[in-house]
Automatic annotation (TrEMBL):
Residues 250-343 form the Pyruvate:ferredoxin oxidoreductase core domain. This is 3-methyl-2-oxobutanoate dehydrogenase subunit VorB. The keyword Oxidoreductase applies. It comes from the Bacteria. GO terms for molecular function: oxidoreductase activity.
């Protein structure tokens, strides 16, 4: 594997190309602009297509069209731009069209700020569009994880014929780190991946071969489709990814994801050096959520949970509460609106719990 020093957004874009993505359509918005900028140069080098649409709505519908041919396709945006794309994402979930999209989240609500935030958690995991569909949602805390998750996301989307979301933020998207890039899929492999969709994709057919445009659901048979999708969602438990860090003897456990999880892990290391028994549960997949990690805690030892996230009011905490089931009190350490959580804030919040 090639080892490079690269910015988060550019690393995501390169991982997509290496996984076989050959179509991207998007629209500029901070802090994700480096993804389309990078792909505007990179995709033509591998025979792919880059389109800057006239809007977020136009761009995501172009992805719908490209993905319907079996081509690995992708879009990206930031927060309020993702809201504009949500209708088409719902359509693609209904039509069982595979696609990957990236949300490099910023502060909100509304246009908000261009600084990083984690205020899109509920949108990403509970309401990415109308109709109650679900998606696998990955939340990287490092540039390496962003690369690995993006590369794998196309395979999950391919397997399930369903949208997959990479939910990151402006910190991971903007930072530069050394990463190991995954292998580049050959032209033959990319073609084979597309050909494997021929049973449903629109790729040109003989006149005597009937093939209808794939539309999202329709007015009849929608309940049966929802039932089949529900059965598919149940199979995702095997794909849950989570980091459980120093929780064996922990008296306080931090719950955090993404960049907040990364900051919290650093805080755990410093607190451990001072003798505090503290650990961390950091979901890497936030949908499906690793409820079992909290279920398996020894609540005879664990006296408190510290929920850390860059959202006010807290959103991630709803899944944490559902997992903890009132077996330990949960307190919060929060920032929002583009204000980045600090290690000092996490350490001080943890020490307050121990002092109680």
């Amino acid at each position: 594997m090639a080892r490079v020093f690269i910015k988060g957004c550019e690393a995501i874009a390169e991982a997509a190309v290496r996984s076989g993505c050959r179509f991207f359509a998007g629209y500029p918005i901070t802090p994700q602009n480096e993804i389309p900028e990078y792909l505007s140069r990179r995709l033509p080098e591998v025979g792919g297509v880059f389109v800057q649409g006239e809007s977020e709505v136009a761009s995501v519908n172009m992805v719908y069209g490209a993905a319907q041919t079996g081509t690995r396709a992708m879009t990206s945006s930031s927060s309020c731009g993702i809201s504009l794309k949500s209708e088409c994402i719902s359509y693609m979930a209904s039509a069982r069209i595979p696609m990957v999209y990236v949300n490099v989240a910023r502060g909100g609500p509304g246009i908000g700020s261009i600084q990083p935030a984690q205020q899109d958690y509920l949108q990403a995991t509970k309401a990415s569009g109308n109709g109650g569909f679900r998606m696998m949602v990955f939340a990287p805390s490092t540039v390496q994880e962003a690369v690995d998750m993006t590369y794998a996301a196309f395979d999950y989307a391919h397997r399930d014929r369903n949208p997959v979301l990479i939910l990151t933020d402006g910190v991971v998207g903007s930072m530069m780190e050394p990463v190991e890039l995954p292998p580049m899929r050959s032209e033959e492999e990319v073609k084979a991946l597309k050909d494997s969709h021929r049973s449903w994709a629109l790729v040109g057919h003989r006149r005597d071969e009937k093939r209808a445009l794939i539309l999202p659901g329709g007015w009849s048979g929608q309940e049966d489709r929802c039932k089949r999708n529900a059965e598919m969602y149940k199979t995702w438990d095997k794909d849950i990814q989570v980091e459980e860090y120093m929780i064996e003897d922990a008296e306080v456990v931090i719950a955090a994801y993404g960049i907040s999880g990364r900051v919290s892990k650093s805080a755990v290391n410093l607190l451990r050096r001072e003798g505090y028994k503290i650990g961390l549960i950091r979901p890497k997949t936030i949908s499906p959520f690793p409820y079992d990690s909290f279920e398996n805690l020894d609540y005879g030892k664990v006296k408190a949970i510290l929920n850390v996230e860059m959202s006010i009011p807290a959103q991630f905490i709803y899944d944490v509460k559902m997992a903890v089931k009132d077996r330990a009190p949960i307190t919060e350490c929060l920032r929002a609106g583009g204000e980045i959580i600090t290690r000092t804030a996490v350490i001080n919040a943890a020490k307050e719990l121990f002092n109680k």
